[in-house]
Amino acid sequence: MISLQLVTVSYAQDSVSEIHSLQDLKSLEQEIQSVVAKVQPATVSLAANRTGAWGSGVVVSEDGLILTAAHVVQGTPEMIVIFPDGTEKEGKVLGANRTKDIAMVQITQPGSYPFAKTGNSDELKVGNFVVAMGHAGGYDALRKPPVRFGRIVSRNPNGFISSDCTLIGGDSGGPLFDMKGNVVGINSSIGYDFKANNHAGISGLLADWDRLKKGDTWGDLRANPLANPDSPVMGFSIGGELDGGIMAEAILPDGPADLAGMKPNDVIRAINGQRVKSGKALLIELNRYRPGQTIKVRVKRGNESRDLDLKLVKRGDFYTE
């Protein structure tokens, strides 16, 4: 439920009249529920085996074209696409404009996928109500992508929009919708208090549509990290799948894996008792935890198996550009 206090401090917009009564509030709530029912199935989680990056995206065509943020796909040619119902597909990274922090991913398997329509961010005004979505904290099979409701608080000439929708790590690349359910922005950078967040306006993306779809990558990613700074990392690079697990190719000095006693060529078999047989499975399992938590990692070293206690850290605290 949306509290009366929340909406009475917001400005009215074209889709609803000013909130003067409980009935006005109920009408707004129904409008939000209608938007969510329409577009939530198209809000996907994205994960990269190569970089360990994870974020969100939104499907905008029936054949599986996805819009996301450039910093989510940076450094990887493929992404794992996970729909809210748990369906997994492989995605090919197409183009990216790093300056605008926008990118495209195409699902490689032919099919008919749930999708949302694109809108016009140039028509948005300060005070307009919007709905933000994303797989906050990474994909979670126990819940659908959380819904955040807020309003536009500012715009800038470069096509970026700011809203007060609360976002956290994992929401990057997710969609911002207007009250008709049209995609009007892509979640870009998250504010320090999580409530003053930037979104790349959809109109700027549409202007680059042909280049992005063709696979061009250009621009300079200045305002965003290489990946979500709040995501948990283990501090090793994946060498491939081996013996029903994931081989650690290199252990980063003074990182969580190094401090836990992991060695190059160790094969990670399980996280807290949950088997991980692929890089994809490892990323999905890792996203269930938060930086600062200690996990038990079962590794195979030669003919021996051993458990290591590994304390996860924030990507932003460990990796630097």
TrEMBL record:
Span of domain PDZ: 234-278
Alphabetically ordered keywords of this record: Hydrolase, Protease
Protein's UniProt keywords contain Aminoacyl-tRNA synthetase: no
Molecular function, one GO term: serine-type endopeptidase activity
Database matches in InterPro entries: PDZ, PDZ_sf, Peptidase_S1_PA, Peptidase_S1C
Coiled-coil spans in chain: none
Taxonomy, superkingdom: Bacteria
One Pfam family matching this protein: PDZ_2
GO terms classed as biological process: proteolysis
Family the UniProt entry places it in: Belongs to the peptidase S1C family.
Protein name: Serine protease Do
